[in-house]
Amino acid sequence: MKNLIMKVVSVALVGAMGFAIAGCGSSAKKLTVEEGKLIMATNAFFPPYEFYEGDRIVGIDQEIASEVATRLGLELEIQDIEFDSIVAGVQSGKYDIGCAGMTVTEDRLKSVNFTVSYATGIQSVIVKEDSAITDVDALISGEYVVGVQQGTTGDIYMTDEIGDDRIERFNKGADAVLALTNGQVDAVVIDDQPAQAFVDANEGLTILSTPYAIEDYAMCVNKDNEELLNKINEALNAMIADGTVAAIIEEYIPSNG
Ligand code: GLN
Prior knowledge:
Bound molecules: glutamine
CATH class of the largest domain: Alpha Beta
Distance between the termini: 81 Å
CATH architecture of the largest domain: 3-Layer(aba) Sandwich
CATH topology of the largest domain: D-Maltodextrin-Binding Protein, domain 2
Structural class: alpha/beta
Number of helices: 10
Oligomer: single chain
Order of helices and strands: HEEEHEHEHEEHEHEHEHEEEHH
Largest sheet: 6 strands, mixed
């Protein structure tokens, strides 16, 4: 009889302790940096994924992140920072997500987690219409200087391929394109959609028909926050399945026909 009472008491105690630990854990660990908010870091000079309309940041990433936030019961806050600082900012816990037409790479995966992919990007080469550069091989084998946006996959791949001396790095893709129109660089390697937007906005530029690399875009999340990663993945998967993601992309990049 005594034994049974002891047993009941100890089970109750363990139960209470478990409850206390769980209770303490959930109040100490927040889902997001600021309760109720989803803070997104981006670099808002990457049309049509992110760009300014007046003083508002709009685009595919803003719309997708905003819908994810709504489905998670959070309010989206966007911070416009340099592209090269996004991964470090998410890793250090300053921002909840990086969402910036960001390519999933092995190297970035060492610092952050990535959600499921919601879009595809293609590294493309912009040259002047009368350029002697007609394909990627010519770009690599010639003595050409290439403009890139600092810290992007275009920068990383081209640096690997042709070395530092032939690379000019810019904070914004638009500045790289300006350097091309000025004759300061011979080509710009950048993602296909911003490439198209820049070519449309500038006379005398063209995109080589040979794409350079095909990539997956995803949001990055702090490695210690698997709960947020899982919740975002759940929302993104549902948005992919119900056509929300496709509709947002179609709004900015209308497919032919
Ligand atoms: N997709 C490229 C990367 O992740 C460029 C992204 C960007 O410039 N916003 O490096």
